[in-house]
Design a protein that fits this description.
This protein is mainly β and 123 residues long. It has no helices and 11 strands. The strands form 2 sheets. Strands 2, 4, 5, 6, 9, 10 and 11 form a 7-stranded mixed β-sheet that branches. Strands 1-3-8-7 form a 4-stranded antiparallel β-sheet, with no helix packed on it. It is elongated, with a radius of gyration of 15 Å. The chain starts with a strand and ends with a strand.
Length: 123
């Protein structure tokens, strides 16, 4: 019932910018935590950015100062603004969310992954 859909990926030249969106639909109450992860071919999936329910944000060192994670609670959407992109940023980017979901007799927390969106940085 809950769907997590990323968008905004594409081909960009080094130094360029992209804004990824992660839209969560379904019978949820709210997103209380979210993160962006990425995986390049033949490599391990790695955390890019994370925001918790208190608004605390963490970034991996290689993206600090270049990427910004944010959340629009009214739209149930998480964003990743990426700038100064370089070829090392090329990967499939996945959105991961912790949500409170409406169930028959109340609510419960769940974790979901999106299907990913491809980001390719190349000249």
């Amino acid at each position: 019932q809950v769907q997590v859909v990323e968008s905004g990926g594409g081909l960009v030249q080094p130094g360029g910018s992209l804004r990824l969106s992660c839209v969560v639909t379904g019978n949820i109450i709210n997103i209380y935590g979210a993160g962006w992860y990425r995986q390049a071919p033949g490599k391990q999936r790695e955390m890019v950015a994370d925001i918790n329910s208190a608004g605390d944000i963490k970034y991996r060192d290689s993206v600090k100062g270049r990427f910004t994670i944010s959340k629009d609670s009214a739209k149930n959407t998480v964003y990743l603004q990426m700038s100064s992109l370089n070829p090392e940023d090329t990967a499939v980017y996945f959105c991961n969310v912790d949500v409170y979901e409406r169930i028959t007799w109340g609510s419960r927390s769940y974790n979901y992954w999106g299907q990913g969106t491809q980001v390719t940085v190349s000249s």
